[in-house]
Amino acid sequence: MSDQINIKELSPNAFDVTIYSNTETNHQVTISDNFITEYQIKNLTKKEIIEQSFIFLLQRESNTSILRKFDIEVIANYFPEYKKLFK
């Protein structure tokens, strides 16, 4: 079964992400305008960035290993190659 990702915007900078896999998980994710500026992301919405980030994470770990609540910037602390995702 491939993972299904459902993203719901709670506010301009906060998202609720549900991953449907063998085990369903829920994640609260924040993203700042500063992140978009720092990573020089021009052509993606915040929701699209969250989706790409979760696809990235799911290629490296199971959904049950992903933090339940985090800011998108912490991904690079665990996976330094994340910084190249949007280049």
Structural class: alpha+beta
Low-confidence stretches: none
% residues in beta strands: 25-35%
What is the total domain count?
A: 1
The radius of gyration over CA amounts to 12 Å
**Oligomeric state of this protein:** single chain
Helical proportion, percent range: 25-40%
Strand order of the largest sheet: 1-2-3-4
User: SSE order, as H and E?
Assistant: EEEHHEH
Rounded mean pLDDT is 94
- How many beta-strand segments? 4
Main β-sheet description: 4 strands, mixed
Shape: globular
Helical run tally: 3
- The span between the termini is 30 Å
Detailed description of the structure:
With 87 residues, the protein is an alpha+beta fold. It is built from three helices and four strands. A four-stranded mixed beta sheet has the order 1-2-3-4, covered by helices on one side. A hairpin with a 2-residue loop joins strand 1 and strand 2 (14-20). The radius of gyration is 12 Å and the shape is globular.
Quick summary of this structure?
The chain is α+β, with helices and mostly antiparallel strands and 87 residues long. It has 3 helices and 4 strands.
